[in-house]
């Protein structure tokens, strides 16, 4: 960065983005991501360890409540702790998703004054929210694979699809974060709707209950839920659980719609964002 402070980096007047293109955006993203982690765990005794403790606490609470007290079982999953694996496959997706959305929806509004005084690519802020969730994502998937092997479930050749599924998760999350952050900046009521939507979405996704417990006539409705499509696909790839026909194609469609469409929406609304600033 040629020894210049970040706040004084030269901007491209034609595009409203720092000169240097993708490389400079990468530098900015890393700077803001480090800043995000420092801010998130500032004053905390355990620090970044909370990234491990919080997912494990959520897993333990849901497992005790649904797996032990309510004794939910997963038909077709041959493992002594099959429900634990099913639950973990869902939480490995849901927890980083909600973390990114919850922090990202207000990212533009939170730094409105900064963007006004020091323009930079506004996409960086939602991208930082998604980047901040990657640690939880990695912990969740890693724990899922380790416990699956420990329970005698896998490894299967279908585990080779996991890198693509992780990329699909990131694309879905980033696209939706772009849309919601821009919408919240323009219409502040969006933040309240997002909180309600995440609560509803959790119970409309087969995480704490297996799809086998839902009447089959309703299975196709889950394809209208992008997170449910991802959860079902991961459960199928890692645990060899059945998924409704067309789940993979529905997931591909959602990645294109939310990933590509979210980027297009954000870019098309940047002139409006500039006027508002």
Task: Write the SSE topology.
Blueprint: E1 11-12, E2 17-18, H1 21-40, H2 50-69, H3 82-104, H4 107-110, H5 112-117, H6 124-132, H7 134-150, H8 162-186, H9 190-203, H10 226-239, H11 247-276
Antiparallel strand pairs: 1-2
Helix pairs in contact: 1-6, 2-3, 3-6, 3-7, 3-8, 3-9, 3-10, 6-8, 8-10, 8-11, 10-11
Helix count from the secondary structure assignment = 11
As residue ranges, the low-confidence spans are: 1-19
Q: Biggest sheet: strands side by side, in what order?
A: 1-2
The strand count comes to 2
Order of helices and strands: EEHHHHHHHHHHH
Strand residues, percent: under 5%
Would you mind describing this structure in some detail?
The chain has 277 residues and is mainly α. It has one domain (20-276). Helix content is 66%, strand content 1%. The protein contains eleven helices and two strands. A two-stranded antiparallel sheet has the order 1-2. A hairpin with a 4-residue loop joins β1 (11-12) and β2 (17-18). The longest helix is centred in the last third of the chain and has 30 residues, at 247-276. It is globular. Residues 1-19 have low confidence and may be disordered.
Keywords:
11 helices; disordered N terminus; 277 residues; globular; mainly alpha; two-stranded antiparallel sheet
Put the structure in a nutshell.
The chain has 277 residues and is mostly helical. Helices cover 66% and strands 1% of the residues. It has one domain (20-276).
């Amino acid at each position: 960065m040629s020894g210049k402070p970040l706040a004084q980096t030269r901007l491209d007047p034609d595009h409203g983005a720092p000169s240097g293109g993708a490389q400079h955006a990468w530098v900015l993203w890393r700077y803001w991501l480090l800043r995000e982690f420092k801010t998130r765990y500032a004053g905390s005794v355990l620090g970044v360890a909370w990234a491990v403790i919080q997912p494990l606490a959520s897993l333990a609470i849901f497992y005790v409540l649904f797996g032990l007290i309510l004794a939910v079982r997963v038909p077709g999953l041959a493992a002594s702790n099959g429900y634990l694996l099913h639950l973990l496959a869902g939480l490995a997706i849901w927890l980083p998703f909600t973390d990114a959305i919850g922090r990202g929806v207000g990212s533009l509004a939170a730094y409105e004054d900064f963007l006004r005084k020091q323009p930079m690519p506004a996409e960086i802020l939602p991208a930082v929210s998604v980047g901040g969730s990657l640690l939880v994502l990695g912990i969740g998937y890693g724990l899922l694979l380790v416990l699956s092997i420990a329970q005698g479930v896998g490894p299967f050749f279908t585990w080779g699809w996991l890198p693509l599924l992780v990329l699909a998760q990131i694309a879905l999350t980033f696209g939706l974060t772009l849309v919601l952050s821009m919408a919240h900046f323009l219409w502040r009521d969006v933040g309240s709707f997002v909180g309600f939507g995440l609560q509803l979405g959790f119970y409309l996704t087969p995480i704490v209950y297996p799809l086998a417990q839902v009447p089959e006539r309703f299975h196709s409705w889950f394809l209208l839920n992008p997170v449910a499509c991802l959860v079902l696909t991961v459960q199928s790839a890692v645990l060899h659980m059945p998924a409704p026909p067309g789940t993979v194609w529905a997931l591909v469609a959602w990645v294109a719609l939310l990933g590509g469409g979210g980027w297009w929406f954000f870019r098309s609304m940047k002139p409006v964002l500039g006027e508002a600033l």
